[in-house]
Amino acid sequence: MKITQIVCTYPPYKGGMGNVARDFARLADELGHESTVITFAKKVEPENERENGINIKRLRPFLRYGNGAFLPQLFFGLKKFDIVHLHYPFFGVAEPVFIAKFFLRQRFRLIVHYHMDTPNLSGIAKLLSIFSRVTERFLFKMADRITYASDDYIKQSKIAAFYEKNKNKFFLLPFGVDTDKFFPIENKNLDKQYILFVGGLDRAHYFKGVENLLLAVQNILSDNLRLKIVGKGDMVDEYKKIAINLQINNYVDFAGGANDDELVSYYQKASLLVLPSINGHEAFGMVLLEAMSSGIPVIASNLPGVRSVFTDGIEGFLVQPGDIQDLELKIKNIFADEDLRVRMGERARGLVLERYGFGVLRKRLEKIYS
């Protein structure tokens, strides 16, 4: 079959939705399907390329705002596919997909992957999203299947009522991680331990809670314990100023963006990953899987979806969103007991092998596509 993933962001842009779409596309290729990713071109990215068996098409947007884009090419560009797997939300694209399927009667099967609720927008963003919000209801009704990563999240999402009435449409599809790529190393022998944060540092990812992390570690960091922040975006300078004001800038390393090899190394050498997200715009947290697969414990906010990735007190700790004191206490607990930290890391790796390996995801994806 010919299968396309349609997604608003895609590597080299660092973001969970793009990484998930890439994983789905790679696994579809491994299952013997002709696999394509459709996204929109940013700056001078090539319009067409091929990567590890995947066709990548970056369309030039007619209109663009942030990570939303209007792609009229999709009105007639989807008829050659057997399955269209739309990663939602993607403002500006739901409309042409809906029109191609409903009004133009194109015969592709539509699968919508519901990543997260759309935020409460304001200003021009709110105005531009009106059409997508209206289309959303018809899109979900028309979809042959709706996939999602977490029962916990979908049951408390904005489409919970629709889910309860249409459970036959919904298929659980947890995210996966390449356990051969992200794996632990023994005998790290590091002069300094470090806490790791990985995520976008742009305003679209304001919900990652970086400021709260800086506030929580201000009394913890020392010559022997540092904080490494991996990511890039337009809020980096703002976070650097916060670190300076807290007088911890000498203990915080803003490492910038990372290629795949660098990211693997950061995980392997870290002692702990922290994902201190502040609200429900964080629905899962792919970095949690990458860290756990690398054999390190994790601390994450107690949010729907996120809290179902691992078990509190077993592979890591959950903290109350926005509670800086709780975050500080849990970080201290990890570093106060080396045996606990090592044990949690080992359990984290075991959990990933059992539940989140690509072999497990491949079987689920094959069942859904067939």
Within the largest sheet, what's the order of strands? 3-4-2-1-7-8-9-10
Give the oligomeric state: single chain
Domains, number: 2
Specify the CATH homologous superfamily of the largest domain.
Glycogen Phosphorylase B
Low-confidence stretches: none
Helical content (DSSP H or I, runs of 4+): 25-40%
Q: What would you report as the Rg, rounded to the nearest angstrom? A: 21 Å
Shape: globular
Which architecture name of the largest domain does CATH use? 3-Layer(aba) Sandwich
Helix-strand makeup class: alpha/beta
Give the averaged pLDDT, no decimals. Answer: 92
| Beta-strand content | 15-25%
What is the count of β-strands?
16
Order of helices and strands: EHEEEEEHEHEHEHHEEHEHEHEHEEHHH
Please give a structural write-up.
- The chain has 370 residues and is of the alpha/beta class.
- The protein folds into two domains: 172 residues, Rossmann fold; 163 residues, Glycogen Phosphorylase B (Rossmann fold), CATH 3.40.50.2000.
- Helices cover 37% and strands 21% of the residues.
- The strands form three sheets. It has an eight-stranded mixed β-sheet with strand order 3-4-2-1-7-8-9-10, sandwiched between helices.
- It is globular and about 65 Å long.
